Amino acid sequence: MAYDMENVIENIDFSMTMEDMPLTNEDKNRLRDCLNGKVDVDKILQEVIKKHTFVEI
User: Fold this and answer.
1) Which whole-number Å values give the CA distances from 29 to 19, 36, 49, 57, in the listed order?
2) Domain boundaries in the chain?
3) Tens digit of pLDDT for each residue in 2-55?
């Protein structure tokens, strides 16, 4: 299972790198936590969206 998970992460990183947005170590760890079921995927998505959303004041 660990190999499959690392393979998934490697494939995602490859795809993101092709778009000039390689994964950071934090991104890879977040993916591991999601794939292992350690964190709620919806919660992580909301955190990432909030982090990268520009709010004009």
Assistant:
1) 20, 10, 17, 32
2) 2-52
3) 779 999 999 999 999 999 999 999 999 999 999 999 999 999 899 889 888 987
Write the DSSP string, 11-44. HHHHHHHHTT-PPPHHHHHHHHHHHHTSS-HHHH
pTM value is 0.75
Q: What is the largest CA-CA distance in the chain?
A: 46
Closest CA relative to residue 31, chosen from 48, 18, 17, 53 = 48
